[in-house]
Design a protein that fits this description.
Helix content is 40%, strand content 14%. The strands form three sheets. The protein has a seven-stranded mixed sheet, sandwiched between helices. A three-stranded antiparallel sheet has the order 7-6-10, with no helix packed on it. A two-stranded antiparallel ribbon has the order 11-12. The structure holds pyridoxal-5'-phosphate.
Length: 370
């Protein structure tokens, strides 16, 4: 039996970048500024330059980035925040942690992204205080922020991009980080730009917001660290993680291009045979996942597994059916597209270190099992 294929291959990436990563980490060990060391500021400057946002504020995780964005806007009890039902838990969790109410919005079947028609209907039907929309760039392709901004502006709502899976992606010439007024991203190891632990960042052009994010991530400090002007968090990005990210950021474009090559192979092999992930013209996905839709998903996954081909289900249960969040939804049948996606999606290996032989094996494995 041939060797098992890796779903993600951080080892191969480390071998490629070992000299830079090791040197960057050794520099931190030598200067010893483990919190707010010079690499943190250097990374923030580099992230802003890369994404085209005026300000980048790093923090402890992608979940914290979302929480900080909502905290800074004063979102809390009595507020409604519109989030996709088909997403990772953290999107809804940040809302609930602040005591606000999540309103779950339907997904689109082929792009998996928030359905803006359903969003509009739900805002119109709401009798509550509609405060914010968190759109998610699920699997790496940015949501339609032109339409989302129009909706948010018409209702005086805050618009936040959850770009945990899309950093490195773009819409036309605009990079993720400059598509929405506020962007939250994650550096969890498996994301398109990942560190070696937890990490995240906020990107915005608004200098007042950036200032409040810097305060909130450090316990709500004012000009002095013992002058507390608001309730905040302890959510800084470790200097060591900033050092790792500084070594990885220069190859992100190259890795995203490699993801795109894998995706093009899959598109060609599977066209007409499975539901393909829809691509918007002119958009560049960061391809956090390559996700297909099939009828007998679990049988396909089992058959691939037997051939040493890993796959994953993102996500097996939509938010409104999670037991912790169900009280905020309308139960089974209320968001049929999101529910159907949860039963039919399967994500295949996609990373920059997948060779042609492995890609061929995956394509053959899928086609043989269908
Ligand atoms: C990973 C992820 C997050 C949370 O990021 P963490 O850094 O793990 O806290 C939020 N939203 C989405 C869509 C994610 O995929």
């Amino acid at each position: 039996m041939s060797q098992a294929i890796a779903f993600a291959d951080l080892g191969a990436q480390y071998r490629r970048l070992k000299v830079d990563i090791d040197a960057r980490m050794a520099a931190v060990m030598a200067h010893g500024c483990f919190i707010n060391g010079p690499e943190v500021g250097e990374l923030e400057t580099a992230l802003a330059a890369y994404s085209g946002a005026a300000h980048a504020v790093s923090c402890g995780s992608g979940t914290d980035a979302l929480t900080i964005a909502l905290l800074a806007a004063g979102v809390g009890p009595g507020d409604e925040v519109y989030v996709p039902a088909f997403t990772f838990t953290a999107t809804a969790e940040a809302v609930l942690l602040l005591g606000a109410r999540p309103v779950f919005v339907e997904a689109m079947e082929t792009s998996y992204l928030i359905d803006t028609d359903d969003l509009t209907r739900r805002i119109a039907a709401s009798s509550g205080r509609s405060r914010a929309i968190i759109a998610v760039d699920l699997f790496g392709q940015a949501a339609d922020y032109a339409v989302l901004s129009t909706i948010a502006d018409a209702h005086g709502m805050l618009l936040i991009a959850d770009a945990a899976q899309s950093f490195g992606g773009a819409a036309g010439n605009d990079m993720v980080g400059s598509l929405a007024p506020i962007t939250a991203t994650s550096f969890f190891p498996a994301k398109p730009l990942g560190c070696y632990g937890d990490g995240g960042a906020l990107l915005t052009d608004d200098s007042n917001l950036a200032e409040s994010y810097r305060s909130i991530r450090a316990h709500g400090k004012g000009d002095d660290k013992y002058d507390i002007v608001r309730v905040g968090l302890n959510s800084r990005l470790d200097t060591l993680q900033a050092a790792v990210l500084l070594a990885k950021l220069p190859v992100l474009d190259d890795e995203v291009a490699a993801h795109d090559t894998v995706a093009a192979h899959y598109d060609a092999a599977f066209a007409g045979k499975v539901g393909l992930p829809e691509r918007f013209p002119g958009y560049r996905s960061a391809w956090a996942q390559y996700t297909i839709r099939v009828d007998r998903r679990d049988e396909l996954a089992a058959s691939l597994w037997e051939k040493g081909i890993p796959s994953a289900v993102y996500y097996p249960l939509p938010m409104h059916l999670q037991s912790a969040y169900a009280q905020f939804g309308d139960g089974e049948g209320s968001l049929p597209v999101s529910e159907s996606l949860s039963r039919h999606v399967l994500s295949l290996p996609i990373h920059a270190y997948l060779n042609d032989t492995a890609i061929e094996r995956i394509c053959e494995g899928v086609l043989a099992a269908l």
